[in-house]
């Protein structure tokens, strides 16, 4: 029953997180659709700005976001508030100066990056504006990691997924309406990041942990935190290379318009990261807490069940995106983006496989196998760069999609092997076949229905709801859910639906 309660905690927390992330992703999608309507070249320039900034933010973080969550959860399990505070202050002391340094670097070299690398002077003002977001994003990431470490996930979701996206979307709409177009979208992004920083600081200090309370003594763990986090930084940077090197190389070899079209397909394919990301936010602190108590049996059970729910939830999303790929790009972004359909389909296959690697990678982090995570990142990122360099000059955005998907699948295979080797945990089980059968039968029904309706945003939502309902009923009939799964479902129903 104890394991059931833990699984229930992860699932309910993940559902709340998932719903918040869906809302945030929906708002982000509206934002992307809004700026995409300015033209693929304009959207491509913004995408390059986002990607370059994200690279510098990742470098500035030095892997401390994951290290923070891990150590805060660990020290909470040990009831050591001095080290909790020391962990937080150590991370700020390390990352803030680095972020300010890279902010200045981007300001000083914006001209050379824009003209010499991407051959587009219109990128210069975007990079200079985005440079000011770097320290604010870094500090916001630290505050978010604190909230997650304390399992205050709802604050993180409200601020980062809801408020930030509402502010960004609203200001972008107003500024574009006033005629500021690309510059207006850039300003809106900067303001939304500053708002996120202010709210994150408030919710940490007032609602989570009083960082600046002098009554709580501080025991710094700067060296230990840095040793743990640095391999994660290189691994995270490698992961970033897998996800964004294609965008940068398309920008280098091709045009801003190609970047815009490709990024629209990438933004849509990454919908498959919603479920695992939501679950991992709860999963990491939960299994780390169990690890501090040496409860290996429950770690294995929770890991298998978490992966089961990832696959169960992601499979219908994957199939709906696959079936309606061309229509989704046309409706969301415009006819100009239909050319990216093939790339979109390739990316979908890469991301559905990659979604199953999250549990295994977190298990290695729990075990403090950060150097191993680093080596995996190096191998997969180098393979991504190599394939992209070979294929993008000749095949453009299709080559980029192939390179990224190959790297994501390789990433999954390596993590699966390592997790099994170190712990004996293999998360994929035979009951996955029942999910696949249910999904294929549901897809056949939707395939027959979709030709009878005029596809629009509304009809796609309706078809998705119908698909999900049929998929759920078929899984119930096939007895895909065990006693603990039913307990989780009933808990969710009693907590959220019956009260409504």
Fraction in beta strands: under 5%
Please tally the helical runs, counting DSSP H or I stretches of 4 or more residues: 20
Indicate how many domains the architecture comprises.
Answer: 1
Taking the alpha carbons of the first and last residues, their distance comes to 27 Å
Instruction: Categorize the overall geometry.
Output: globular
Structural class by SSE content? mainly alpha
Low-confidence regions? none
Series of H and E elements: HHHHHHHHHHHHHHHHHHHH
Would you tell me the overall average pLDDT?
84
Largest sheet, in brief, is: none
User: Which value, in Å, is the CA radius of gyration?
Assistant: 22 Å
Number of strands: 0
Classify the helix fraction into a percent range.
Answer: over 70%
Structure description:
Helix 12 (296-323) runs antiparallel to helix 15 (358-366). The model has no long low-confidence stretch (mean pLDDT 84). The longest helix is centred in the first third of the chain and has 37 residues, at 81-117. The protein has helices spanning 2-36, 40-61, 64-77, 81-117, 124-131, 133-149, 153-177, 181-208, 222-253, 256-269, 274-292, 296-323, 325-333, 341-354, 358-366, 370-395, 397-423, 432-450, 457-477, 483-497. The protein is an all-alpha fold and 500 residues long. It has one domain (2-429).
